Input
Amino acid sequence: MTHPHPGPAPSRKRPTGVLPLLYQWLFDPTFKDGYQRQLENAVGWLIIVSVLAIISEHITPIYAGHELAFHVFDLLTVGIFTVEYVLRLATAPWDPEYAGHTRPRLRYALSFYACIDLLAIAPFYFSGFVAMDVEMLRALRLLRLMRIFKLSRYAVPAWREFVALNQGHSLRSKVHALLEPTERSGKLHMYVDNFIVLWVFVSILAVVLESVQSIGQVLAFEFVVIDAMAFGIFTLEYVARWYAAPENPAYKRKYWPRFHHFKAGQNIIDLLAILPFLLEYFIATALDLRFLRIFRLMRLLKLTRYTSATQTLYQVVRREWQVIFASVFVMILLVVLTASLGYLFEHDAQPDKFENIPQSIYWAVVTLASVGYGDISPITPMGRALTVILALVGIGIFAIPAGLLASAFTDQLRIDREAFKKTLLEALERGELDPKARETIAKETARLHLSVDDIKRLTQEARESIAAQQRQESLAAGAVILDPQAHPELAARQWRLLVAQLQLLSVAAGPQVLEDQLAGGDADAKLHRRVLAAVQQG
Output
């Protein structure tokens, strides 16, 4: 938002009155101390939960016996949405979009968002004041699904921002910006990512609940619908990423960019997320359906695209593999040695439990891990003494890799942030950020999940580093030259100091060495040789 008054920090007049203050604290996005962002997030999640609740009402096993809870939640939801509508209508004169109109409240009431907000609560009040039959009541209850359109308050501005940022670009470039973090992605990319992540969790929850026989039999049709919708969403995402692969900087200069996109690890995971659905419906007779249904849990790996944790862990393991391998080797050595001793001490007393060394390895592992399930336990004095020693040693043995990974993981996060700070520093040193630098910063911001405050802090640190570097360069630029006319005595002292330094250099290096180094035919070389001769002569 631009301010009409010039200056680095324009003063803002504090509003007076209850309604102006309510607008400032609840709905003004430019007021940093307000609760506009928190309110929008809370209302957005309430919309999603209320729509899920309406859908659940039509599933008899879920709704039966919980009618009162659903009714109370519906009353609470309608009350919150009503208060929001009334407050937005009352504070419309202070909204910049409607403040210039003669009747701002009427203008807001006729706006698209206000009509959607009204439709979200109208069925409840209409059914409460107008008598109607059962079929009409069911139709009105279904109309409550119109609440989903309240999300347009977030989606429409994000879409307009995306269109403005991608004006003049090709369709393929727009699809790439929608699916990958770039300088042209905007908020719409974040909403698309959140939508896909939500469906990953929904599909995984459906697979887990479907394995419960009492739930799977009752909600079999609903699980099929969820699986089909998840398949459609993930397939559309996979095809869109394949289509936009030539725009990806990682494959843009490759000969076959889509082939390199196809064999990338993340895209193989995306393919595995949709493959079970196809296999289950086309070649289900040749494969175990239980295996195919559990195989759908591979969709959980799709979350690795939307978090940097797995990439950071991979970098940690690759960097510290020697130390981790050493600790794992010690663990394996100790397990085998312990299993052998356990077999030696307990085989005669318990031949069924300590039948062989491989079976003793199970006891050694659970003992070293300080778990001790109790299904296999020594009964001889030597075996029990060995168990006590292993339980104490296992605490330290298993703590070594965990400590190494935790320390290396924290160190890797610090390295990533320092690398991001270096990227900011290099971009700021060049002055204006070019599109490539902006895209790199946008990707790193999304990968490291940096907040706006983190970006501001790192940018400030980068600017301070540049300022400190510039100060050091100015201090090391050269010797201070005095004005001999203004300070003749200081100039004479400086001359004596320089002559003394030259004499020391001449004595230390030798006259011939300096003359050889100063050899040359240019004017500076001749001047240097004359000064050196004068110094040598005293």
Remarks:
- The radius of gyration is 36 Å.
- The chain is about 70% helix and 0% strand.
- Confidence is low (pLDDT under 50) at residues 1-12.
- Residues 381-429 form the longest helix (49 residues).
